[in-house]
């Protein structure tokens, strides 16, 4: 038996909205420590890793490890029926072929119940290696979303370069080029506006903007986004879901054609 209730159901809706365009279907793995998902996008270029801790739920019960395969578009349709303030309860019997979602309004006057058919999905669990990153940048999530959106109107890729004082985003396209720089700024008065850089060595890597724009759909989840960069490693774009867990995206850097021709 799996059962979990989250008081702020809007969080669950935002998580699913953030990943449903990247992933068609995926297994949600539940055990006594929490609820997680790990899946490649349909083109096998990026990886999504979600983990929600058991103690972040109002009530959480998982008698044995269970893996529930769901089509994200269908899950999104059901969650759209919940109000942002509703509490959401998820329930599934051992070996059941459906998962039940119950939505309860704050005044408890309306209770809705939806059953979603589960799917059998073959998916390999990809181990994400723990790594020391050359540079970690924490910046306002809305700022990052705006930067990747603005640069997408100029080019297809972005070079992210980090020094101890600033992080720079640059692109070049048919119509010209653009550079946006965010300086380190540990704002004490307005922590939500702070940009913090933790660096072991400077790094400059190029990524496809299309994917970064997709990742930025998670902006409503968190005030800040954390970017972790290292030479020859995928970038990590991480959103901390307050009091519940994290949603991380991984994207391999693009290798310039010139390098490949050398």
Automatic annotation (TrEMBL):
Is DNA-binding tagged as a keyword? yes
Question: Where is the protein found, in the record's own terms?
Answer: Nucleus
**Matching CDD domains:** PCNA
Gene Ontology annotations of biological process type: leading strand elongation; mismatch repair; regulation of DNA replication; translesion synthesis
The residue ranges of the Proliferating cell nuclear antigen PCNA C-terminal domain are: 127-254
What InterPro entries does the database record attribute to this sequence?
Answer: DNA_clamp_sf, Pr_cel_nuc_antig, Pr_cel_nuc_antig_C, Pr_cel_nuc_antig_CS, Pr_cel_nuc_antig_N
Q: What is its main location?
A: nucleus
Q: Which UniProt keywords apply?
A: DNA replication, DNA-binding, Nucleus
Q: Does the keyword Protein biosynthesis apply?
A: no
Q: Name one GO cellular component term.
A: PCNA complex
Q: Which Pfam families match?
A: PCNA_C, PCNA_N
The Proliferating cell nuclear antigen PCNA N-terminal domain extends over 1-123
Query: Could you state a single Gene Ontology molecular function term?
Result: DNA binding
PANTHER family referenced in this protein's UniProt entry, alphabetically: PROLIFERATING CELL NUCLEAR ANTIGEN
For this protein, the record's NCBIfam families field holds:
pcna
What family does this belong to? Belongs to the PCNA family.
Physiological role: This protein is an auxiliary protein of DNA polymerase delta and is involved in the control of eukaryotic DNA replication by increasing the polymerase's processivity during elongation of the leading strand.
Supply the name of the protein.
DNA sliding clamp PCNA
């Amino acid at each position: 038996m799996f059962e979990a209730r989250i008081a702020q159901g809007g969080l669950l809706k935002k998580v699913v909205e953030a990943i449903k365009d990247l992933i068609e279907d995926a297994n949600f793995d539940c055990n006594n420590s929490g609820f997680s998902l790990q899946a490649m996008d349909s083109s096998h270029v990026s990886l999504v890793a979600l983990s929600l801790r058991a103690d972040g739920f109002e009530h959480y019960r998982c008698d044995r490890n269970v893996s529930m395969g769901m089509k994200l578009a269908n899950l999104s349709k059901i969650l759209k029926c919940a109000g942002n303030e509703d509490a959401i309860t998820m329930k599934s019997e051992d070996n059941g072929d459906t998962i039940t979602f119950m939505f309860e309004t704050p005044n408890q006057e309306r209770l809705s119940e939806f059953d979603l058919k589960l799917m059998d999905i073959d998916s390999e669990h990809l181990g994400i290696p723990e790594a020391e990153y050359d540079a970690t940048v924490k910046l306002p999530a809305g700022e990052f979303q705006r930067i990747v959106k603005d640069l997408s109107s100029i080019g297809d890729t972005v070079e992210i370069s980090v020094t101890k004082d600033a992080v720079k985003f640059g692109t070049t396209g048919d119509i010209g080029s653009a550079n946006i720089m965010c300086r380190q700024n540990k704002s004490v008065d307005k922590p939500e506006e702070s940009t913090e850089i933790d660096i072991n060595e400077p790094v400059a890597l190029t990524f496809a903007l299309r994917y970064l724009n997709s990742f930025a759909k998670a902006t409503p989840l968190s005030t800040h986004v954390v970017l972790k960069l290292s030479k020859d490693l995928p970038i990590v774009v991480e959103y901390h879901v307050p009091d519940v867990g994290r949603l991380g995206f991984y994207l391999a850097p693009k290798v310039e054609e010139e390098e490949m021709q050398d």
